[in-house]
Design brief:
TIM Barrel, binds zinc ion, single chain, 9 helices
Length: 280
């Protein structure tokens, strides 16, 4: 199982230079990268006239240093993000479902609206050979200061979204489970993994204490995710994707970022290797 890191939170520590960030990820021992397109989306080198050259350059560097871009996170224009992702060599590009308020009691309406939202991406996804990753969300309710369910946050609803999209556009959509997002709405990630089964091809891995979306390193939170149980569920469904970190260190001292990346890699490798135990 490859250990991959999402580029989003760390780019700023490398002067927003993606090549420098990739070199740092490789030096820390990561096997692959999840390219956060949203962190570069507004820049001139990623506009309509320049994105092809930029994506090709990134892929060349990824191949040169042995850090394949296996997954991406859409930024702004979903169809352009899919094209960028395919040029980078990624198999799936996460495009969040819309978070519609309220969700509770309006699941059916929100489901229909999200089907309409996703439909225009199917043609591009199939044409370029990069699937749209549907991610489970949650919603902050500021008024009550609580986190509520939202699009795909319940396993049954997540499965329904994927099945409906697969029926309409075979091969264009897949599930990318954000394990922190399910934990924060009090859903067991292992249970969600078992219910998703073969629908699941990607992960966003991070931890939280169950009441906020901390995007912390696995294992640091009291009342955090049971990662061994989560790995057991991934093994049971014969998950073939990467262990993709989506952790955030907004206030870390820049001098500590290389050591932080190494620590994240070591922790992640420990859990990722649980997939291999007993397989021999
Ligand atoms: Zn995520």
């Amino acid at each position: 199982m490859k250990v991959a890191i999402n580029s989003g939170a760390f780019l700023k520590f490398y002067n927003n230079d993606m090549i420098e960030a990739m070199n740092a990820f490789k030096a820390a021992g990561f096997d692959a990268m999840d390219f956060s397109i949203m962190t570069v989306a507004g820049r001139p080198e990623w506009d309509e006239d320049h994105y092809e050259d930029s994506a090709k350059r990134l892929r060349e560097h990824a191949e040169k240093i042995g850090l394949p871009i296996t997954q991406t996170h859409s930024g702004g224009d979903g169809n352009r993000s899919l094209k960028i992702s395919a040029l980078c060599g990624a198999e799936q590009c996460v495009i969040h479902p819309r978070i519609l308020q309220p969700h509770l009691g309006r699941e059916e309406i929100n489901f229909q609206k999200n089907m309409e939202f996703y439909s225009p991406f199917a043609e591009t996804a199939l044409a370029v050979g990069c699937k749209v990753g549907v991610e489970n969300m949650f919603k902050w309710e500021w008024e009550h200061e609580i986190i509520q369910h939202s699009s795909c946050s319940r396993p049954e609803e997540f499965c329904r979204y994927i099945d409906a999209l697969e029926e309409k556009f075979p091969g264009a959509f897949t599930a990318v489970l954000d394990v922190g997002h399910v934990h924060v709405v009090q859903v067991d990630p292992a249970d969600c993994i078992r219910k998703l089964g073969k629908r699941l091809s990607g992960l966003h891995i991070h931890d939280n204490c169950g009441y906020n979306d901390h995007h912390a390193i696995p294992g640091v939170c009291k009342a955090g995710i049971n990662f061994p149980a989560m790995m057991q569920a991934l093994k049971e469904i014969d998950f073939k994707g990467d262990f993709t970190l989506e952790v955030s260190h907004p206030n870390q001292a820049p001098a500590l970022i290389p050591a932080t990346l190494e620590f994240i890699q070591t922790v992640s490798r420990h859990y990722a290797n649980m997939m291999e135990v007993d397989k021999q």
